[in-house]
Amino acid sequence: TATGHAMKPLTKSTKLKNVCYDIRGPLLQTANQMEADGHRIIKLNVGNPAPFGLEAPHEILRDVSMNLTEATGYSDSQGIFSARKAVLQYYQSKGLLSAVDVRDVYLGNGVSELIVMTMQALMNDGDEVLIPMPDYPLWTAAANLSGGTAVHYRCNEEDNWQPDIEDIKSKITDKTKGIVVINPNNPTGALYSTEVLKQIVDLAVEHDLVIMADEIYDRVLYDDVVHTPMCTLTDDALVLSYNGLSKSHRIAGFRAGWMLVSGKKQHASDFIEGLDMLASMRLCANAPAQHAIQTAMGGYQSMQELTAETGRLYKQREMAISRLNAIKGISCTKPQGAFYCFPKMDPEVYPVKDDMQFMMDLLVEEKVLIVQGTGFNWDKPDHFRVVFLPNLLNLEDAMDRLDRFFAKKRQQ
Ligand code: PLP
User: Per its UniProt entry, what is the enzyme's top EC class, as one word (predicted)?
Assistant: First the structure.
């Protein structure tokens, strides 16, 4: 070097040792390179509705732009009043059990920021948090980044991916601080029964666990099913409810999310002080997007148009599921929420050892980008997640390519 001394390699911090987020990992890097080289890639990897022509409701865009000049400064660290009030009313209308006020609502730069903040506020080194398997991998990454340990509980594919209560029970230790419930679930699209949710609540109450309910897909539902928010089931446990506008209102890029603290709060003042401090440290959530929240929560819920039988997302789900199930050795349960499915590859037919490499082969050979199951902390290399956001034409194209790819693999 110019100064003459050999430079030590700059390594990432050891805090990142068990942190991974494969949805935007090596597969995406390869896909981006292929695109730069002029290939067209069909991307079934990210739950980002806007690029697939699923536009945000115009009233939302108008709200944000009308308020733009008012929203140039930092807001309150927890968020603007009107948005927080609307969030409260949303949960109250759903049957929230405990008394809350605007101080119990935190707006964030998406649910993502609030997930990381929660784990930072909650976990000491060595603490454990129960997280579903498969999961939305940010939860595991954030738990491990906080110095704690993500302990995965099983969701049963044979039982339409409902959480396995016995497995949860067997994994509770005296280090367990909380339990994460993602309902409707990413990556399985499962909607949990009220019965199962109540059993989880009972365990949380018995063992003093914080319930973290990620309900970002609660308005993306098919088949007239009803979603039960965790905060409507108990006021005997501390319940943190997460939601936002990324999916329901197709404005993932605006970064509008929130968290409600409800239930048993009396003993939690110190933890809440921690949350307040972390909220202050990041100053505030993106202020223009906060102005979308009141209208979004109170206004017309346009997502229903997309998920009704005549809607685009409904039709795309039907097609993805039937095409996937028609492939020999592939089976897939039908999701009732969100826009994902998590098919299984029969290991007898496809003896996959490294599912990331398998999906890399798919990308290189057929130009379809799909994230492997282990990217969602699934413990076997026998699943993958399909995002069915592309329109029917593109989805059909993707399914033709999958057909061809799996047929080729069967012959190898
Ligand atoms: N939680 C789940 C289950 C998700 O699927 C996602 C995004 O895919 C998020 C949280 C993050 O959402 P946000 O855009 O609000 O950060």
Answer: transferase
Helix/strand/coil for 361: helix
Question: Are 121 and 264 contained in the same domain?
Answer: yes
pTM for the full predicted model = 0.96
Question: How far, in Å, are 48, 49, 158, 243, 398 from residue 252 at the CA level?
Answer: 6, 8, 32, 12, 24
Q: Which residues contact 95 (CB under 8 A, 6 or more apart)?
A: 229, 232
Closest ligand 1 atom to 246 CA:
14
Phi, psi (rounded to 5 degrees) for 372: -75, 155
* Nearest atom (ligand 1) to Cα of 47: 8
ipTM confidence score:
0.99
Report CA(135)–ligand 1 centroid distance (Å): 11
Determine contact, residues 27/371, Cβ cutoff 8 Å: yes
- Is residue 162 located within the same domain as residue 218? yes
Ligand 1 atom 12 nearest Cα: 111
d(CA 409, ligand 1 centre) in Å: 33
Bridge partners of 132, per DSSP, are 153
Cβ-contact 222, 203 below 8 angstroms: no
* pLDDT tens, position by position, 168-200: 999 999 999 999 999 999 999 999 999 999 999
Residue pair 360/25 in contact (Cβ under 8 Å)? The answer is no
- Residue where the block lists tokens 């108008």: 62
Between the CA of 136 and the centroid of ligand 1 the distance, in Å, is 8
Which atom in ligand 1 lies closest to the alpha carbon of residue 185?
Answer: 3
* Counts for the chain of helices (H) and strands (E), in that order: 14, 15
Q: Are strands 340-341 and 344-345 parallel, antiparallel or unpaired?
A: unpaired
Claim to verify: residue 282 and residue 147 sit in the same structural domain: yes
Residue 64 shares a structural domain with residue 134: yes
Range of the domain at 256: 58-298
Domain count, the chain: 2
